[in-house]
Specification:
Layout (H helix, E strand, L loop, with lengths): L2 E4 L6 E4 L10 E9 L5 H17 L2 E5 L23 E2 L4 H10 L3 E10 L2 E10 L2 E7 L20 E3 L2 E7 L6 H9 L4 E5 L17 H17 L2 E4 L1 E2 L2 E2 L2 E2 L5 E3 L5 E4 L5 E8 H8 L19
GO molecular function: amidase activity
Keywords: Hydrolase
EC number: 3.5.1.4
Length: 301
């Protein structure tokens, strides 16, 4: 079993794989955030600044913030009000550049609503103090989102100071092909940014019993294990309109084991690991990407 410890004064639980320590070459700390965000962009920016500050104090090198951290998510997934959509930001909006400035030496992934002419996208950007490292537009849109957003059309990994990384936005991770595409493109870390609510049609009395809570964890662990990569999964907390968000931010190792999590509360899930070493360990005998048989797969186009 992984050893558990607490970062002094943080109130945050870290689960480190056995045999890893802060003194080893290649060991970094990664964090997934669970937090509430809304339409007030100045409030959102202050909250992002606080999360970056907290992560920096804990020695975090990669921080994954939730989907729609700038501007909030939709308030209604059945019939989104076109007059109450999140504010749309251009790809070079000063607020995004401000997040990059705040990130400094850290790598930070953050979600927002992107404006591109008449189109709007549910998007994520990965930044550091050096600027934009990578971008992603959500490809898989659930029914309600199609009324508010256009769909992206690709999955691509990119190089960062913490390793090769790819991004998914909530519903993307429901589809195995999404994370597999990133892994085949060399991603060692998959950042999953979410604004994932409890069930809209059949909400359980307790969040832990909710169908969507079970699926959220299942997808995170499956995508990590089947691709033998690290998954850093953030999510919103609180409510927006009729939606109640799950939280459950977590870091999952390449064997599918949860290394750190926040459960339903706001906070940071922080894990310390050597990403390359953990992937090499997971792939020592079974190398899923190399052992695929594409000619035998049908209906993937």
């Amino acid at each position: 079993m992984p050893a558990r410890s607490r970062f002094p004064g943080s109130g945050l639980t870290r689960m480190a794989p056995p045999g890893l320590g802060a003194g080893r070459m290649g060991v970094i700390r990664v964090a997934a955030a669970a937090a509430r965000f809304g339409r007030d962009l100045e409030f959102d920016l202050r909250r992002i600044a606080k999360l970056i500050e907290d992560a920096r104090r804990l020695g975090v090198s990669l921080l994954v913030l939730p989907d729609a951290a700038l501007g909030g998510y939709l308030a209604d997934l059945r019939h989104p009000d076109p007059e109450a959509l999140p504010p749309a930001l251009k790809p070079d909006d000063p607020l995004l550049m401000k997040v990059a400035e705040m990130a400094g030496e850290m790598v930070v992934c953050v979600g927002y609503c992107e404006a591109d002419g008449e189109d709007r996208y549910n998007s994520a950007v990965c930044v550091s103090g050096d600027g934009v490292l990578g971008r992603h537009r959500k490809v898989h849109l659930p029914a309600g989102e199609t009324a508010a957003y256009s769909a992206g059309d690709r999955f691509a990994a990119f190089d960062t100071p913490v390793g090769r990384l790819g991004m998914l936005i909530d519903y993307d991770k429901t589809f195995p092909e999404s994370a597999r595409s990133l892994a085949l493109d060399g991603a060692e870390i998959v950042a999953c940014l979410s604004a994932w609510p409890t069930s809209v049609t059949n909400r359980a009395p307790r969040m832990a019993q909710d169908r969507q809570a079970r699926l959220f964890d299942l997808y995170d662990c499956a995508r990590a294990a089947e691709n033998q990569v690290v998954v850093v999964s953030s999510n919103q907390t609180g409510t927006m309109g009729g939606l109640r968000f799950l939280g459950q931010a977590k870091v999952v190792g390449p064997g599918g084991d949860i290394l750190a999590r926040t459960w339903s509360k706001a906070g940071l899930a922080v894990a310390e690991l050597d990403v390359a070493a953990e992937i090499a360990r997971a792939r020592r005998v079974l190398r899923h990407l190399d052992e695929r048989r594409p000619a035998a797969y049908r209906g993937l186009g």
